[in-house]
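Hello forum,

I keep getting stuck at the same step: I have a sequence, I want structure tokens, and every attempt I make locally crashes halfway through. Rather than fight my setup again tonight, could one of you with a working pipeline run this one for me? It's a single chain of 757 residues.
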Amino acid sequence: MNRRLVSLVLALLVASPSFAQQKVDPPTPGSGNVTLSLDEYNRLLALANRPNKKTEAPPQPYLLKRADLKFRVNNDDVVGSIQFQGETLSANTTIVPLTSGMTVLDAHHGAKPLPLLLASGVHSAILPGESEFSISLDAGLPLSIEAGRASFILPVPSAGSVRLYLSVPGDRTNVQLNHGIITHRASVKGNTEIEATLIPGQVAVVWWATREVVAPVVPREVRFLSDVKSLVSVSESDLQITALADINVVQGDADKFSVAIPDGFEVTAVNGPSLESSEVQNGVLLLKVTGHGPAAYQFLISLERPISDSNAAAPNLAFKNAQRETGEVLVEGQGTIELTAKESGGLKRLDIKEVNPYLRALSRYSLQAAFRYHRQPNESPTLALEWTRFPDSSVLSAIAERASVTTLVTSEGKSLTEVKLTVKNQAQPFLKVELPAGASILTAEVAGEKVKPVQGPDGNRVPLLRTGFRPAGPYTVSFVFLHSGAPFAKKGDSEISLPKMDVPISILEWELFLPEQFKVKDFSGDAISASLVPSEYQAGVGGGVAFSPAAIGGVTNVPVNGRNFTELSTLAPGIALVPGQLSGYVIDFSGATIPNARVDVQNTATRSTLSASTTAEGYWLIMGLSSGTYQVTVSAPGFQSLSVPLAYDASNPHAYRFALNLGLITQSVEVSASSMMLNTASSSTQFSKKQKRDKGAAPMAPAPPPPASANVFNLQQRVVGVLPVSVDIPHAGTSYRFLRPLVVNEETNLAFTYKSK
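Reply #2:
Ran it on my machine without issues. Output:
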């Protein structure tokens, strides 16, 4: 039986795995499909849509756990160290404020030196990453010693807990403090040592009694000097005073100053680097300052009051108890105003240029008057103002001091005209030109460089400025236009006109060059013949002059670069230069005048250039110059050019006589009283001209018209290969000159009668 039982057990043990392998599994769904109940599906959706739990950021990126302050009293100072324990909670760089109100001598982070950031009086450490830190500061505080008492103010860091360890000289010294609790007190080697727990973030005051007796200090009388610079501004509705006050304390400790406010005025602003506060009490402005001892203080005080009349009294601000009072007064007016200032009581008028530059920097309007004063005990500086207002008008943005116009007329009736304007320009970009019918602009230049004219819907535009050009004074703008005109007959009447230009022209000079086959007479129109203008006025506008170089006295020869030029200190009777003019003569070394010579005057600072051509008498004139250093270059065909540096004083103008040497060139130029011919076959240049006037004799008007100027010659030269047109310009003809003053946006017309020769 036992054998049978053992065999049965073994058979069952062997057969049990086969039974397990024959266990039937439940049917599986097809691939890609899952069968869920509706509740399970909704529960999965709720889990999928559950928002992720956000990590909350700490309220601040650092934590100051503990601060231990260890100080000792050393003579008049309290010195020691502060040990900080804390942790940074941000992975980025963290700025940790440590302390304020102390003098930090050194700082360490562990064993390494630590740089600190000082901002708004707070010392801060810049620590990287998320970690714990230990920072040590060496610091000091001032000790205040009074009669029988010593104390110091201790700013307590904002840490979790703050402990103070203090050592004070003296056995059993009674040390007291506020905003804290003293937990331990002991006497060690003649010193009193205390331990205290302080309130974080508060300012603790520590004090104790001393045996030193300090004699009371008798306050010294405050003495100071005041200098008040006042800007009086007369606007349309109120009177404003801006005072820049300089106070110099020479004795005593000043903590405030008093200024009497004038009647009717209201204080609008008070500023100053050492000003602690300001207030008005019973018509007195109190200025409380920081710091003590002899020092200099500065205040900027603004007051104003409304005005309704055309007169007012401008008061001076005075500091009470000043030992000496000085100052300046500058008056300015808003808008177009004529202002009269009557001074009294020690005010002395001075030039506006002598006013303090800081006071002038405060001004915003046109300056009217300036005064200076030194107040005496029995004086009260007063200033009475009266003014008249005028309606504002538009300001000219550009003006032409001079217009030099040259017109060449062909036998077919066509005209080629060059207009040269000497312009003073503030901001006007273009010159509007209304050309007559059948005319077109060929070329234009600004300060010697070509620019492109623009065709607008209401007329042509000539640029007055170009890229990179910033004029500092007068400069030249020129343009050339061609007019088809009407052909000439054997005889008849003809008209010619200049276009409207929207820039006012002070003086217009027009030279009209007509072909030699026509005899012209009976000129009429808007301009007058230059021969009808007196010589002194012609000199003022750059026309021909009716006297010779021999009529000039007071001559001094000055050698320049091996050549000579002559300064004419005295002009002939009836001829006078006004400020801003420069003139003279160009002659050869035989004494004969050189007509049509070119004189270029260039400002060496601004590089702007003004040019002129000599008349038949060799005279030239340039206007509109300011004081400065100039380079004068004189050139003429057949002569060596002459360049002379010149220091020019606009208030004291002079005339000069330049002598040119003959040049070795391959052309010959002959100049006579009636014509100019160019001959390129010779290698020498000859000039023949007889001076038939006696020295000092009155000039005689020549019967024939004057010869063509260099403007005509230059325009004839430009036609060939320069201008983009083909025009048969006459090289022989008669030149007529006309003048017209003050041309304002209007045409200039000429009419004449002609007859074929």
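Residues 539-575, 664-706 have pLDDT under 50 and may be disordered. If your local run keeps crashing, start a new thread with the error log.
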